[in-house]
Model the fold of this input.
Amino acid sequence: MSTVNRFEHLRALYMARPVILAPMEDVTDLVFRRLCRGVGADLCVTEFVNVEGLLRGARTALRKIELPPDDQPTVIQIYGSDPARLAEAAEVSAAAGPTAIDINCGCWVPKIAARGAGAGWLRDPGAMVAMAKMVVARLPTMPVTVKTRIGWGPESEMPIVELARRLEEVGVQALTVHCRTAKQGHDGPAVWEWARKAREVVKMPVIVNGDVRSASDAARAIAETACEGVMVGRRAIEHPWVFREARSLLDTGVECAPPTPAERIELCKVHLRANVAARGEKHGVAVTRRHLTGYLKGLPGAAILRQRLVVTESLDGNLSLLDEALARIHNAGTMMEAVA
Ligand SMILES: Cc1cc2nc3c(=O)[nH]c(=O)nc-3n(C[C@H](O)[C@H](O)[C@H](O)COP(=O)(O)O)c2cc1C
Done:
């Protein structure tokens, strides 16, 4: 893709009011990105990648920036506390061919923020802007975006508004605002109002994030903030169909039907198989478990099925339990039809 096209491509993505899969460590790997894209995610972001790990060639970091041709559009997110190292790592990541490079300025976890990385940048907004400027200068052919929070906390007037303006000035192409302070972690409500205020002072796209849990939340967040799009994190872990539901509501004004029991069971099977192929049987089955409770929610007999899945380590065992559950649901449905 030519330089101009990369920037235009990103702009076009944001023009279409995207519903974006949030970066989530240990969650938004290639398997989960493919799965979410399959149910409507318009854009995905990798797990955050440690710049030091990447620059010393650590296997985990290199795996995180691997983007096969079907894994597009995907943004690679990096984090670190040293501007020069961030710029260097951004260049390495750009070679993997992402849609953009995103700089994580929002991770509140103490071992990261206390070292000046992630949300640590919010303690010195001027330094964040200077760092972003350095990364942008290093990547003339690749858009650079920033994901951050509204402030460190508990400021009375959040720095995000002034920050948005200054980040745009140094060439940042888009901003995602997780509408909490760093101090809040994941507690308390996300205040979308700050994304609206940031949106008002810039021309670059702004994405609103935090507590978007349904199609109607997505529509409301965009309506209330005038942001270009929404980013969904935790809800996608349990209900990835949120992407197609939001897409449908945003495009047509109509929320699409919830997933059928067959779709729910099929997604469990697809996710299990893909994780086992990527990580081996034991680990693949184990990491998929955290999703299954949500995927199976509302199905008749879901509680018992979950109890059985939790103690079943083999892929075949899990698949058989899921097939049996679907057969039982179909049989029950057929019997109801016969009685009616
Ligand atoms: C398990 C988990 C891992 C996360 N990892 C990252 C990350 O690597 N980079 C990042 O910018 N945010 C990360 N976040 C924050 C999310 O991207 C998002 O900003 C936050 O969860 C709020 O959105 P939500 O209310 O839709 O979940 C993580 C969140 C969770 C729950």
The first helix runs from residue 3 to 15. The chain has two domains: 3-252, 261-339. DSSP finds 16 helices and eight strands in the chain.
